[in-house]
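The instructor's notes for this session suggest beginning with a concrete chain rather than abstract definitions. Hand out the sequence below and ask the class to guess, before any prediction is shown, which regions might be ordered.
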Amino acid sequence: MRLFTQYTAIDIGTASIKAVQLEHANGNAGYRPASIVCEAVPDGMIGGGFTNPVIGAVGKFRDLLRTVFAKIRHGREGCIVGLPDRWVKLNLFDITLKPGESDLREFLEHRMKRDLKVPSNLDVAVDYQLLSTEKIPEGTSHRYLVGMVSRGMLDTLSEVLAELKVQVMAFDTSSLGIYNVFEGLHPENAIDRHIMMCHVGHETTVVKCFQNGILRYERVIEVAGSEFARHCMDIHQYTIQDAEEFLKKTVFFPSDKEGILAMYPKRNDIARIFGNWLRELNVTFRFYQEKFKIQKLPRVYLTGGSCLFSGLTEFLSDYFGTPVERFNPLAELPGVGTLEPSILSLGPRYAPCIGLLVE
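After discussion, reveal the predicted structure:
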């Protein structure tokens, strides 16, 4: 696996903006973090979805990015920007083409927009990746992974970064690159098997299911850390700050018999906080099993700032009957050396940033 060391990765989220720079280590045989930055995003600044992405106050957003770049210690040639998953429409797209048509980009983009029912009044940028081809009597069947995002939002972000004298090398969706770094670190686990990546962010939980290294299914669940916090606010009459601090400090998922007994009096509150999330995950996982005729749910890898609850992986492993673990690329980079425990523990939160830096 090769990673970019000449660029900065910027992950734009609804709760924070994260930035990662890597540098060569161990005689250029490995990598280590050169800079890791996380800056909180004011509530409501980043929002909307594919049809209506929103930056609530462009000037304040620019100032926030300026703060992020000011905290980065090393200059870079440019940056790769990860967009919120809700802003990007990802689809698996099958089309039968005649010889030469696969080289006609404008034709393909037109068909993709039409067949994927993009509103005619929505100006979107289209990117696609060919996943597979198959000869059939009518021609050749092509399967593409298609990504679409508002062109106006890309223009806005490009203008803001240009004002900060930062060159944009590429835009991507934040969580898509997580699998790329996972595959690079664990090629033996990524071939000829199903892998489920579950990114638990602030407003959404993004489930991506891969088979043989190819994305087979994706679902964006509108339940994640912000809903956990809202339920804490309702139950305990907390402010949002107190609720978020409560979530950080409280043990919700027992890992032994004593823990189960301790949690028992709080079971109704725990069910209220996490019940909807668990139901949505269960629906998503079971649908994937049925659609792809899988007898046993595959291994699940968690990333994101809202997957860091103590005991969560053990609980989910038992709940879904399959191994569940956090994916922490910071801990697994070759030659990474020793990191501060406080930084190392947040590796799952920075997984999208590191994924953006995969060549």
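Then share the key points. Residues 186 and 290 are 27 Å apart (CA to CA). The mean pLDDT is 89.
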